[in-house]
Design brief:
Helix content is 68%, strand content 0%. The protein is mainly alpha-helical and 107 residues long. It has one domain. Keywords: Membrane, Transmembrane, Transmembrane helix.
Length: 107
């Protein structure tokens, strides 16, 4: 059993749903930007310091790990809609990897 008291009136236990959605939006922005940037740096690693594996690990961590973190935060806060939107971001790596390799950006 939880030690936390239930919400008054039997409602949701989220006291600040806007704050949770702002946190999820910031994490989503990080995932949307850092995933493709890390992947592009990995594709072009021969001209940059560091190995391609390091950049691909950063891209994977950002593109997959951050949305999972955002979904976990939203789930714990009781905001199912924000959690579902965060999980929908897991399709983003397929989009940007395909776009990078189908355009001249992929080298």
């Amino acid at each position: 059993m939880s030690d936390r008291p239930s919400a008054p009136g039997g409602g949701r236990n989220t006291s600040h749903p806007t704050g949770i959605r702002v946190v999820v939006a910031v994490l989503a922005l990080f995932a949307l930007v850092l995933g493709p940037v890390g992947y592009l740096m990995g594709v072009d690693a021969h001209s940059h310091a560091g190995s391609a594996a390091e950049w691909f690990t950063l891209a994977f961590g950002a593109a997959v790990g951050i949305p999972l973190l955002a979904a976990a935060v939203a789930t714990v806060a009781g905001d199912r809609r924000a959690a579902l939107w965060a999980l929908a971001l897991l399709a983003w790596p397929v989009v940007f990897v395909s776009a990078i390799h189908l355009t001249p950006l992929g080298g």
